[in-house]
């Protein structure tokens, strides 16, 4: 539902994709249980600007810390989660856990990152062996093999909306589109490092500037790594990335499941995408035995493969070298990490300062050994009582959805029956998973950071490849318990609500029902809604890609969602950049549906909150929802979100209350106020 500190973004399903959003301590700590009235700006009319009404005072009094691209309530909880992880890691590090044990791996990985002296002493030497191997490539056949060796499990289309990788291509292992009982191999486009093809192709001034800065950054990295003629090489690499970007699908196109369902056998690759020596590629990837793949962006595979023929071997070798350097820059001496941050942190997201090293160390352990920490985290920070209460809320929300679907006059009985089947077979994971990842094939050494990263990525790749063809575990989680987020996994017909989001201010056992339903209830409703939105409607109750809608029902659904896309198209975060209603449609539908169902759940609870500072129980419900989305973003970060994220900025998420009839009853906005919509103009999906 939101994005994460990892550079990948979460999406279809997850609540927020905090690609860049990093968070801090300055958010007002809630002292009472319920809405934060001190955040409200009473000088703003709710009907004119609900977002600034609910959050304006907080926005006025909040500064973005220098090491962050953004600040919001998710950040505050993220900080709490990170601090807890850091404490756990410290405890683990001093416990002298047995060699080879998971806890020892946690301690050794963290210590290898914190050993700055050791990292400086080694200099570029860990990378040197990789660069020498690339320099030794003599022909396109060897190039194909080397490209295959870079394949990693570093993309995730549906659970994380991460549709491309800096490597030539990326692997995602997930339940098959056409056989959801078994894991299949999905391949995705790659080859570019900037966040999206638009960064290469848009002629806006800010993107033109970024492209020049990127080439300067490339040259600086090549120089640090000791390569000659860095400027000339950078130009060649950039031109190749630009050519690759032109073959890529846009984010909105990537979200179209039906366009992605392309099964290619091994022989299809040379027939449909000539150029790259595919036998060598798959052999290098260790996937010679895999007979078929689902190729998400078929035309990108055709285009990228042709570029292997049309672009010189030397340029490809430079491209490989640069991508290798960039991929490990954060784990090399300080000069590399600083140069990387100067471009990706300062220029691309507007953040003046790097996070303290210990925090980056925590993120690293979370990335590579997330479940090892998660086990300890869940045991320590997620009481059984929270699990029970959250389960009860989810049950109420599902009941609210069921009622809404039953009451739809436009939906046919057969479509309703499959929708009902999806609801009744939905797996809802609360707090933490039932089984944990096994890290026994991951070797960690306390004095070898570079090797730890290399082996960690490879171990995850091998773990994923080993699952191909095996039966699917529908209860498998895609988030760790310490993640402040939530996710819908359409191929598993499952939801995950990690422990770290099930705490105040989202979920507070001591807060009134109106506030809990407005805060976490709308999040739960959002995730359930993904089961039925533009993408969820492509999957049946078993997670198969199947059109279970009658043509008339689908037509009605598409007509009402087109209205919502048009509504978001009118929002303009910058004079030269509008929202893309189609790119954000699935998430915007989930917000409208989530608020509607959460409101029903709150009403069904029968509880009425006492007024707080004059705000009624219903008003508290909507204010709690609006306060989920209070945020401050740096301009570059906001631009990046608008261009690369399926989630709308917080302001437009909060303002979606304009589509909800109950909001009109609660705040009585008048025609003429900016958010006011006549009843016929409000978008009602469910
Ligand atoms: Zn979502």
Report on the architecture of this protein:
The chain has helices at 50-60, 73-94, 102-114, 116-122, 125-135, 140-149, 198-201, 205-224, 230-247, 251-254, 257-260, 266-272, 278-284, 298-310, 313-328, 334-349, 357-381, 384-407, 413-424, 449-467, 513-530, 551-569, 585-605, 617-628, 635-644, 650-654, 661-667, and strands at 70-72, 169-175, 183-189, 263-265, 292-295, 427-431, 487-489, 494-498, 631-633. Helix 2 crosses helix 3. The chain contains 27 helices and nine strands. With 686 residues, it is mostly helical. The strands form three sheets. It has a four-stranded mixed beta sheet. The two termini are 19 Å apart. Strand 2 and strand 3 form a beta hairpin. The structure holds zinc ion (ZN). Zinc ion (ZN) is lined by residues 1, 13-15, 526, 530, 587, 590.
How would you describe this structure in keywords?
686 residues, mainly alpha, four-stranded mixed beta sheet, three-stranded mixed beta sheet, 27 helices, disordered N terminus, binds zinc ion
Helix and strand arrangement:
Layout (H helix, E strand, L loop, with lengths): L49 H11 L9 E3 H22 L7 H13 L1 H7 L2 H11 L4 H10 L19 E7 L7 E7 L8 H4 L3 H20 L5 H18 L3 H4 L2 H4 L2 E3 H7 L5 H7 L7 E4 L2 H13 L2 H16 L5 H16 L7 H25 L2 H24 L5 H12 L2 E5 L17 H19 L19 E3 L4 E5 L14 H18 L20 H19 L15 H21 L11 H12 L2 E3 L1 H10 L5 H5 L6 H7 L19
Helix pairs in contact: 1-24, 2-3, 2-17, 3-17, 5-15, 6-13, 8-9, 8-16, 9-14, 9-15, 18-19, 18-21, 18-23, 21-23, 21-24
Bound molecules: zinc ion (ZN).
Zinc ion (ZN) binds next to helix 21 and helix 23.
